[in-house]
Amino acid sequence: MILVVSEKPSVAQQIAKVLGANERKDGYMEGGDYIVSWCLGHLAEYVPPEHYDPKYKNWNFDDLPIIPEQWELSVASDKRDQFNELKSLFNRSDVAFAVNACDAGREGELIFKRVYDLSESRLPVKRLWISSMEDRAIADGFAHLKDASEYAGLSDAAVCRAKADWLVGMNATRAYTSVYSRTLRVGRVQTPTLAMLVERDRQIRDFIKEKYYLVHVKAEGLDLVSPKLTDAGMARDMLSMVDGADAHISLVDTQTKRINPPKLYDLTTLQRVANRYYGYTAKETLDAAQALYEAKLITYPRTDSQFITEDMRGSFADFIKRIQEYSLLKELGVFEVSDDGVNQVINNAKVSDHHAIIITNDFFDCDENDLSEKQLNILHLIWTRMVMAVAAPYIYNETAVHAECAGNAFSQKLKCVVDMGWKNLEGLDHEVKKQSEEDDVKDAPVSVHEGDYFHSVTGALSEHFTTAPKAFTEDTLLQAMERAGNKEFDSETEKKGLGTPATRASIIEKLVHSGYARRKGKQIVSTEEGEEMIEVLPDMLKSASLTANWENQLLDMEHGSMDPDQFMRGIRGLIGSVLNGCELIAEDERQRFRILDSIGTCPKCGSLVFEGRRNFYCVNKECSFTLWKDNYYLTNMNKRVDARMAAEMLKSGRTHCKDLCSSKTGNLFAADIVMDASGEKVQFNLEFPKKYDKSQRKGKRK
Asked: What is the pTM of this model?
């Protein structure tokens, strides 16, 4: 028998169907020579620190660093039944070898490895590596299984990435939380990402707009402008000089420009476009694309490539021809798919694990009623991009016109379209962002020649303001994450930026869920808590280039050219530097959050009072003041001291409560709780409002 383990039950069902394993069992399917089971995503995770030593339950700086000698895994309680079934299958005597059929990427490798290791199995392992869930692709993948040893580098990178995230997150979070007495959650990738958000928001907040002026010279359809002028007097003087004067055309330079069509989609580009035009978050796009993949309608979505391989040439060209039968395309007219067009999307060197996201054969038979609106929109983006990617370039002539008037220089750029090319299809896609080369080009049919003179030109003055940087959207944040650190690497480096296409969506979600970032319409901005954390963290934890360099090292590890031990030494070195830096933080700096977090001042010594799990305590260790949340006096009245009550008592010595309960009668009543902190222990008594009448008591304790 052959044991096949996939990442999800839905994938297992499709694989089982192709292999003929149709007999449903508890936690797996069986039939013929195959047993097909699944992992339910991450079945196992690294254990928390307190598993290694009970002392780690308390976050003490002196206990750091926490670096396990032997890493241990645990299975979530809600997934233990499935793990036990898998463990039993891995150790069945009739199983000859196992097939890792988890998603073909770093995370899929990690999911399988953890379960395999925990099962203590010694089965040989082969790897299923496919980019489509079509029946034909699955069958072909099983016909060409590879030995798991060929993916040892990918496995090492997956393990090292997980360990690095655990070590940096656990140690840095505990270190800075202990030093500042405020929870500061640090992440290897999410912290540099947050730092980019905070820096952009600061640039916007600190931006001071400045006025500038442009002087225009207008004649016979031309609108020539001066360089920017910041002095209003100089601008008005120039205007008076040129208005009514003669202008001389000193240079006319025409160049033909070609703009190639947009490339096929990788995951990050798909997420960016979907956010820009549909407002989808990166996670929403990934979820929709994953559902389409599992429905066999598109190829593997977690890819960083925008190309296909040479062996796909024929099938891809056939897809384009079949797509052109769609009514949307018929309205624009069918175009011939040339070899040059298909060549634009083929590049073997730029396809590593997976090619670009494209449709599958099953796309042509799908029922749109079976898909959600999000899935339909994502599917539309993918197939329309395929058509655009093989279209002809957009070609236009750009003419730079330079003129001299009254001793001043003026210029204008003109454009004349030669061939619309792929832009004829622009209505199919939402990718209508202007190319940067066109931003200042005016489309005007003006005939002008070098040496021309224009007499008595009209002068004009326009006022403008510099604009602040734009807040990040998920679109532009994904782009920034993808490009992070690029300037620090040479041109030959295979850049990965912050995170990978498969993880960037979860990084953004973590920032939002942690309260360090928030969505504001399409924008994503840092919160006050996010800014405060970035302000206190050292550059080494905020460095986008350092984290991007780690991603490159992990990529090298996948390729077998980076030693895992060397990578982990670098991570441990970072943790050592972090802890050394924490020890040097001055006492004044350590107190920066405490006033903000305190609920008041101590009535005994005047120091700050903070809320603990069971009490409100004075920060002065020599002071005896403690206000317990549960105390005998108030418990008898079914009352527990909360933060509001404690703050009021610290401020004025009393707090008013409307729902105290009599232990004798069960009736509810209102009274002031008065605190007396003059003795060794805090004492309480009740004071009733002057007009209080016992007949006003309402209700009974239920």
From this structure: 0.79
